[in-house]
């Protein structure tokens, strides 16, 4: 199979997708997420790593498989074909190879998958799939006609978001970003990419920083406002890129305000200037956006240093963010994972904007501080948290016994008018919580109509994985990730979520299209690691 045949453009794929079929492929594997007895959601698996489906735009014998470490996702209904299109970014590092197209050249590093989904009789199935992008551009300069297969490659595409007309863009696009600060495609540091019309465009003007996510503020005016969260431990910052849409331009990036903008960092204002997560732990803080002059020309190290010098608000590993669908130009939810002394177990914030001007004065509310709920009793004094647990097992046990179980180490979120879905990450403090409550870092919901009441909704199906492949699975090993609202496509209370089944074992039952079954070693070589994409839907 030639490279030209394997990697088709988004535009061509949309026209040739097999939408005539009422239903498509559904994985035979059980869900990697299971609901507790009291859970409010059903988990229905859609596709598992190694599952082959029809190659979008290919011949009937051409096959495409889900590769490992699925993360950011974006979903929309194509207005022309009426197909449900799902983008899935892969968090593979720049030295890993995967082979999603059967018989084709292996891809190097992170890339994005594009699936065509069918929804019939309450079942989500896969009609076809392919790599979402062919040609690679540095802004508008052509670098390669194919995704990287050798040499420089992207590392760890993490969270991201779909953007289209509802976000003020003139066409559908999917944005994702490199999460790691090393092994990047460009030596100057991590960057955001956009999948537009089947092409991947690097967007250096958004700034080079190791990001958790990149998302476009929904706006109908000439302003393009894009939020990026720096996934860099302690300290990390929240950035905003602001560009102007040039609607008469023939350049798709200029037309959508994705070039020649300015970069700002979120910082405290007035009495809250200079505050960070060590000194702002509850209530509301006055915030502002501070310009980083020449930010697009800085390296990742330089941009982070400039954010610090400018007085940016220091988070402990700020993670995912999501605009509030109730008031998308007015507010967004923002999560920090924590893991260090000043913020051990993570927090959830609500950032409030000036709606007519995204750079206007802002405020930030603490929705919850997990340290104060799960381990109450620690006392903050400057940058030191006295009484918090660490290696002191007696203190740790006392503080844990004083609290209640609650979502910790927040990684990914999805937001609707009624619900916030939370996927937990892991760190040392979070592992102690998982052990205390005999659970994994799983999936929670917060009820926005009941003072953000929390409920544990999903744990991992270790039992099936162990029975199938052997080995052991420790608490916190797997991650739920990439969760997005899917209610517009699949009904109220619907989300698409994925599982990163980390570990040294992989599926031992992946069927080879030409016959036989891959060994575990072969599966690891082809797909990196196990994982699954799942429909999470509110029970009737």
What does this entry look like structurally?
The structure is a single chain. A hairpin with a 6-residue loop joins strand 17 and strand 18. This protein starts with a helix and ends with a strand. The chain contains ten helices and 34 strands. It has a nine-stranded antiparallel β-sheet with strand order 17-18-19-20-21-25-24-23-22. A six-stranded mixed β-sheet has the order 12-11-16-15-14-13, with no helix packed on it. It is mostly beta strands and 540 residues long.
Briefly, what is this?
The protein has 540 residues and is mostly beta strands.
> What gyration radius follows from the Cα positions, in whole Å?
22 Å
Low-confidence stretches: 1-22, 379-393
Q: Could you give the distance between the termini?
A: 46 Å
* Secondary structure tally: strands: 34
Q: Residue share in helices?
A: 10-25%
Beta-strand portion reads 35-45%
- In the sheet with the most strands, the strands line up as 17-18-19-20-21-25-24-23-22
């Amino acid at each position: 199979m030639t490279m030209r045949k394997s990697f088709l453009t988004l535009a061509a794929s949309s026209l040739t997708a097999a939408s005539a079929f009422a239903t498509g492929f559904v994985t035979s594997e059980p869900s990697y997420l299971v609901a507790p007895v009291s859970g409010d959601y059903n988990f229905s698996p859609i596709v598992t790593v190694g599952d082959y489906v029809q190659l979008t735009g290919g011949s009937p014998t051409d096959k495409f498989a889900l590769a490992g470490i699925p993360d950011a996702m974006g979903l929309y209904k194509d207005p022309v074909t009426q197909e449900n299109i799902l983008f899935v970014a892969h968090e593979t590092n720049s030295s890993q190879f995967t082979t999603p197209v059967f018989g084709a050249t292996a891809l190097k590093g992170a890339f994005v998958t594009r699936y065509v989904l069918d929804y019939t009789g309450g079942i989500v199935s896969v009609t076809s799939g392919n790599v979402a992008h062919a040609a690679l551009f540095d802004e508008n300069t052509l670098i390669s006609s194919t995704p990287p297969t050798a040499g420089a490659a992207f590392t760890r595409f993490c969270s991201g978001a779909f953007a289209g007309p509802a976000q003020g863009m003139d066409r559908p696009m999917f944005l994702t970003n490199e999460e790691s600060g090393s092994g990047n495609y460009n030596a100057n540091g991590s960057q955001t990419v956009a999948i537009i019309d089947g092409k991947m465009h690097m967007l250096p003007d958004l700034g080079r920083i190791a990001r958790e996510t990149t998302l476009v503020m929904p706006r109908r005016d000439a302003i393009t406002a894009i939020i990026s969260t720096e996934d860099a431990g302690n300290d990390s910052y929240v950035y905003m890129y602001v560009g102007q849409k040039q609607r008469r331009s023939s350049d798709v990036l200029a037309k959508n305000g994705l070039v020649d903008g300015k970069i700002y960092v979120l910082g405290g204002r007035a009495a809250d200037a200079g505050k960070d997560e060590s000194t702002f732990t509850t209530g509301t803080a006055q915030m502002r956006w501070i310009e980083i002059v020449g930010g697009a020309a800085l390296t990742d190290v330089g941009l982070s240093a400039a954010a610090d010098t400018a007085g940016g608000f220091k988070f402990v590993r700020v993670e995912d963010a999501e605009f509030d669908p109730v008031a998308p130009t007015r507010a967004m939810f923002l999560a920090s994972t924590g893991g260090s002394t000043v913020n051990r177990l993570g927090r959830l914030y609500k950032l409030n904007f000036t709606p007519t001007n995204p750079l206007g004065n802002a405020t930030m509310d603490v929705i919850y501080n997990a340290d104060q709920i799960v381990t109450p009793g620690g006392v903050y004094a400057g940058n030191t948290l006295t009484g918090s647990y660490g290696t002191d097992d007696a203190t740790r046990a006392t503080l844990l016994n004083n609290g209640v179980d609650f979502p910790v180490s927040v990684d990914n979120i999805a937001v609707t008018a009624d619900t916030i879905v939370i996927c937990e990450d892991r760190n040392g403090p979070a592992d102690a919580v998982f052990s205390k409550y005999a659970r994994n870092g799983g999936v929670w919901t917060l009820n926005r109509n009941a003072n953000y009441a929390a409920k544990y909704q999903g744990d991992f199906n270790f039992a099936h994985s162990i029975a199938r492949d052997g080995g052991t699975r420790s608490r916190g090993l797997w991650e739920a990730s990439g969760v997005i609202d899917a209610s517009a496509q699949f009904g109220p209370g619907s989300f698409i979520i994925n599982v990163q089944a980390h570990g040294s074992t992989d599926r031992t039952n992946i069927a080879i299209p030409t016959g036989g079954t891959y060994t575990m070693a072969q599966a690891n070589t082809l797909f990196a690691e196990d994982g699954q994409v799942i429909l999470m839907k509110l029970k009737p």
